[in-house]
Amino acid sequence: MRKSLPYGVPMCSGKESVLCFLFRIRDENNYHKKLPDMYQHLFGPVPSRRLGMSLGVDLIPHKICSLNCVYCECGPTTRLTRERKAYVPADEVYRELEDFFQKHPDPDYITFSGAGEPTLHVQIGDVISFLKELRPQIPLAVLTNGTTLSDPQVRRELMQSDLVLPSLDAATSLALKKINRPPASIQPETYIQGLVDFAEEFQGEIWLEIFLLPHFNDDEDNLNALKKAIFRIGPDRVQLNTLDRPGAVEGLHPMPHERLEEIAAFFDREGVEIIAAPPKRKESKAYRDDVENAILETIARRPCTLQDLEKLLGRHMNEINKYLGVLEERGEIESVEQERGSFYQLKTPPSG
Ligand code: SF4
Question: Does 94 share its domain with 12?
Fold first, then answer.
């Protein structure tokens, strides 16, 4: 009879597999005791570049999304869908939130994000209402790819939030297909119109994120079309971002800073900014040395993928990604491409 390890992974025998190794060192290190405050649907608070100390609420299992962006830090989309449903039970989320706030101080923000598109959860509006009753003083942000905003029901459900950070990387069909790889039903016109309609109805702030990659969406046609779309949407801020973690496909390169500055100037409007570099995250009060140390100890034993670290440390991949960004920027770790994806390892100092 085959026995199973946690997470439904079959128990292996004979030569130690990578997964067996991962579970063994997890147990040896007893990370669950070291890092006790773990939830199924909450993560952090994490040091967020844009929102300070932010508690993450993740309503979508990895990795259900309406887009399959080449740069996605969480890996390829395994279920590309626009279907809205109760992907996780809202009651569980309520229980975890109540528990969290009984035990922890208030974060700067509560942010709906995760390894998928949060507005695909059909009860996101209920969870927002619940939080507005439970902790009305904490501002509430929603990170969304923006594709669902063409649905008036989704727009209504987000009305009680304080800040919405939608993405729009492409305003032409060609660039959209290249960088976001959407299902055929998502077209730039309806995507942008959804954002325009939302901006007209929403009373809170909108920070539009544009993720830029050389040769994917920096062509003249797309930049011109994006400029027009930005004008129509009229967001409070436009935030230009580029790669700082390995994406869902290999061989991507970040947009050079000078080019980001050129594009920011081309958009020619107030409120366009290039998102700050990752080292600043270390200065955040939410930065946890125990999480950083657990990552370093783990990859010192053997290089790990992001998914390996998530399983081993029992922490959300978005949270781990934040720390990997800081460690990589500080030159303590590096990523190497292998068959199973990007592996993180300690950086070997140059010899001599
Ligand atoms: S980056 Fe966001 S929108 Fe794009 S595939 Fe990943 S989770 Fe989905």
Answer: no
Nearest CA-CA partner of 345 in 312, 308, 273, 296? 296
Q: Mutation test of ligand 1: which of 66, 70, 73, 77 has the most ligand atoms closer than 8 Å to its C-beta?
A: 77
From the CA of 66, give the closest atom in ligand 1. 8
Q: Which atom of ligand 1 is nearest to the CA of 167?
A: 3
Q: Which domain holds residue 320?
A: 6-34+288-346
Residue 184 lies in a domain: yes
What's the gap in Å between 67 CA and the centre of ligand 1? Answer: 6
Any domain includes 1: no
Non-local (6+) Cβ contacts of 35 within 8 A are 290, 291, 294, 313, 314, 315
Residue pLDDT tens, the chain, 352 long: 323 322 222 223 333 333 333 333 334 444 333 344 578 999 888 877 778 889 999 999 999 999 999 999 888 999 999 999 999 999 999 999 999 999 999 999 999 998 899 999 999 999 999 999 999 999 999 999 999 999 999 999 999 999 999 999 999 999 999 999 999 999 999 999 999 999 999 999 999 999 999 999 999 999 999 999 999 999 999 999 999 877 888 889 999 999 999 999 999 999 999 985 544 455 555 567 788 888 998 888 778 888 888 888 878 888 888 888 889 888 899 888 777 778 898 887 665 4
Separation CA 226–CA 217 (nearest Å): 10
Q: Is 68 in the pocket of ligand 1 (CB under 6 A)?
A: yes
Domain end among 264, 281, 298: 281
Q: Which two tokens stand for residue 123?
A: 């009860």
| Total structural domains within the chain | 2
Query: 77 C-alpha to center of ligand 1: Å?
Result: 8
Task: Ligand 1 pocket test: pick from 59, 64, 67 the residue with the most ligand atoms within 8 Å of its Cβ.
Answer: 67
Ligand 1 atom closest to residue 211's alpha carbon, by position in its atom list = 1
Q: 276 and 297 in one domain?
A: no
In this prediction the pTM is 0.77
Structure tokens given for 45:
């608070």
Structure tokens at 104: 């922890």
342 and 245 in a common domain = no
